[in-house]
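Notebook entry, structure prediction.
Reason for the run: the old model in the group folder had no record of what sequence produced it. Starting over properly, with the input documented here first.
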Amino acid sequence: MEDLRRQLEELKKRLEALEESIDPVDEVMLSIKARLRKKIESISTINEENAAKVLKALANPDRIRIMKMLSERPMSFKEIKEALGVESPTVSHHLKILTKTKMVRKGEKYEITQDGMLFLRILMLISALGEEGEENK
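New structure, fully documented this time:
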């Protein structure tokens, strides 16, 4: 539990550093920042089942690619399938997992949710931190 608290404090510090680099006119980033801060502050326990589902959803490169594409614009099933270059059942499987975890929603087209944008930003931070760690070796 102490390790989790330490990790949360580190995450808060990194969030503060990120806040300083955000252009105040970028409303999307400000919204994501506010939601992330609220979620961090409300964390008291970890729901292991929910955490595992979210991590599973994020543990596939094609699902991350889908989220990145949808962060640029809403897309139809066919557009996603063509962009990924995979079969329909595979796309269906990925979209089912992403919609079940509420990272993507289906309307007329598929689009990323605010939670999806938040997780995509977190993945970018994690990726950048991983690259930073490699440089220090």
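Summary: The CA atoms of residues 103 and 116 lie 4 Å apart.
The old model has been moved to the deprecated folder.
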